[in-house]
Amino acid sequence: MTGCDELPFAVARDADLGLADQMVSGIKQAIACGHWSVGDRLPSLNEFAKLAKTSRRIPKTAMQRLLQEGWVASLPRKGYIVANPNIPMWKGRVLVVFVSDGNTQVGGALYLRDVLERNRYFVQLVFVRSAADGAFDLLPLKTALLGKFDLAFCHRPVREIADSFAEARVPYVLGCARTRTEYLPRDEYYRGCICSDDGFFVDVIAAIRKAGVRRVAFVDFHDVFDRYAARLKSAGFAVEVIHTPVDAAVVTPARVRDGAARFFAARYGAKGGRLPDAFLFIDDYVADGALCALGRLGVRIPRDVKVVTMYNEDVGLAYQADFSRIAVDLAAMADVTAGYLLDLLAGRRTPVPKTSFCYISGETL
Asked: What is the DSSP string of 171-198?
């Protein structure tokens, strides 16, 4: 099959997934759905590049991956053809949805896709974006749900996405970085929410106690994690709880960052507020906004003031300070999530697992 006028999938430059990854997923889906059959000749690299409006490097990278995975073969004078007759014979189909609101989570999505595909489940990735008014663009999700899926997963407990799964009658699992969430569905298609546990916080308390810390500023933009502040108090620390403002009904990472920057500029800038023995930022965007604001004001955090922050690899902290990290291990989280999804797909009833952050000591503690 050659000389096609358009691709059977979309490649968007403003999408969260890279162009080559989009092309790989699109070609896999087209083969799995029968658009291209075994032995069919695929468009040439130049044709792919022209139809997708990309450079030739993008389809070349995509084809190299497909060759390695056995989806296509390269024949002299013929180009690329669909290779293996067993490829479309997946055990099942899984829809994986990630919400992109500044923290793209692309790494976690790719890890999860790779684990499921190694276990012979076809995976379609969908990224749902939130607008400035907080509304979600559900069109990519609604379009994907026109296909048939055995299971769906979304890494956040978003009501509109859960409702979309239920309307399409697709069993689904939600994820959540918190140990509890404000919203959990109760429909018949809901199969559980994979949350995090609090084990890492024992290491945080031990580290700041060993460093001789007495006064802790516990900083976040909401009260969901205030139980950690309570644990610090019960451990004997003097704790100041700081909730940085978010001047909007709709919370986005940019607004969280800006609110923290304004608060810290006013608190520790002109007023010269007294610094605590340690800052504990439970949100990476709050840390980024707060520490960068101090940097712009020329307020340097002394080396004897400790900094511990939640850290996500998709958020590059611009402030060049030494800090200890509460890190998100995307690979470990993907393994836990995939394990539960695979159990459900195989018909095994297992308890909903928990994921965990991990504490990584830096130079400051």
From this structure: -EEEE-SSSS-S----STTEEEEE-B-S
